[in-house]
Amino acid sequence: NAGVTQTPKFRILKIGQSMTLQCTQDMNHNYMYWYRQDPGMGLKLIYYSVGAGITDKGEVPNGYNVSRSTTEDFPLRLELAAPSQTSVYFCASSGVGQGLNEQYFGPGTRLTVT
Amino acid sequence: QQQVKQSPQSLIVQKGGISIINCAYENTAFDYFPWYQQFPGKGPALLIAIRPDVSEKKEGRFTISFNKSAKQFSLHIMDSQPGDSATYFCAASGSPRKLIWGLGTSLAVNP
């Protein structure tokens, strides 16, 4: 199993550009998450999904959109990139049921908006 | 409003010493308390987790102590090693598995 994979690893965007961060998991997990991590600020939940076709906002959803058409994929869309979106983005997934709370994280995407 | 408060922000320990990181939470509905370890350039990875029906859980050199009445839990790393140098995050969650994260503790273990 590859676990959670994210692409790209690094990206530089100009202000106003758009892009999609890709996330795929091969563990058949129902739950998937997108976080951003800023220095000294911990992890902030952007969006999450409890299954295909179901998504919901987290703490910091403004400026982002998500979709979940399959169990495996959970892309994050940035529209009109702003410098405040410079961050490291992590995708994670977890299973359902007692004892399956562990969130498995991808390697992250480092995004710079200039 | 931060619902999980973590301290200290950074910690330096000598090899062989004990590292202690503390967290406090506010929401009594939380029922799952994990600790994650993150190395530079990597995503966080689950280290150890506890539920509120036990006061302590030990896995190797890592122990979680949980005080439900005080709404506090802590991570103890015994015989700390240079390879333990990383950032540690506590978190808490209720339903539906949305973790609320502490701000992290940067641990450096000197050889």
What does this protein structure show overall?
- The complex is a heterodimer of chains A (114) and B (111).
- With 114 residues, chain A is mainly β.
- Helices cover 0% and strands 49% of the residues of chain A.
- Chain A has no helices and eleven strands.
- In chain A, the strands form two sheets. In chain A, strands 2, 4, 5, 6, 9, 10 and 11 form a seven-stranded mixed beta sheet that branches. A four-stranded antiparallel beta sheet of chain A has the order 1-3-8-7, with no helix packed on it.
- In chain A, strand 5 (43-51) and strand 6 (54-57) form a beta hairpin.
- Chain A is globular and about 45 Å long.
- The N and C termini of chain A lie far apart (36 Å).
- The mean pLDDT of chain A is 93.
- Chain B has 111 residues and is mainly beta.
- Helices cover 0% and strands 53% of the residues of chain B.
- Chain B has no helices and eleven strands.
- In chain B, strands 2, 4, 5, 9, 10 and 11 form a six-stranded mixed beta sheet that branches.
- The radius of gyration of chain B is 13 Å and the shape is globular.
- The A-B interface holds A 4, 31, 40-45, 48, 50, 58, 90, 92, 94, 101-103, 105-108 and B 6, 9, 32, 34, 41-46, 49, 89, 93, 96-99, 101-104.
Summarize, please.
The complex is a heterodimer of chains A (114) and B (111). Chain A is an all-beta fold.
